[in-house]
């Protein structure tokens, strides 16, 4: 007997989401915190060669950097797998974003209230391409020195862009950001209902 289409076993639906933001905002940390597998990381130690090239202001404790991408996986159920791609944060590696964004449904943009300016380019990147995104304010060590409205105003966010605050070292904070993104994607894909006339 020959096989039929109904006999064929298909794999789970794969969904691609980017985790983006400026240098040192916590992208690698978030991917590692929520991934069900040991994440693939392309981190290298910062060296003297990066002095004057990478802005490490306010990041005295940072000694490594992502040079290509971070990769993690979350199996939602047997039919759905989410693949997370963390982008490099330094300007000299931004050329990779154009490849990483291919096929992505949306993004989580992480920001650090101590250095909000490093996230402007990330937000511009997704806005200019019409790619849905949510903003996660990474409250390092559980502390945030700005309110949600102050962050919205500083980033000039559209009111429809979800913004959540939390420490992305905690898996639940990363999970909440991903759920907010999925909610945003579902709301955008919902059919518009015509009023009864």
Automatic annotation (TrEMBL):
CDD domains: Ras_like_GTPase. Pfam families: ATP_bind_1. The lineage of its organism: Bacteria, Bacillati, Actinomycetota, Actinomycetes, Kitasatosporales. Gene3D superfamilies: P-loop containing nucleotide triphosphate hydrolases. Coiled coil: none annotated. Belongs to the GPN-loop GTPase family. This is ATP/GTP-binding protein. Keywords: GTP-binding, Hydrolase, Nucleotide-binding.
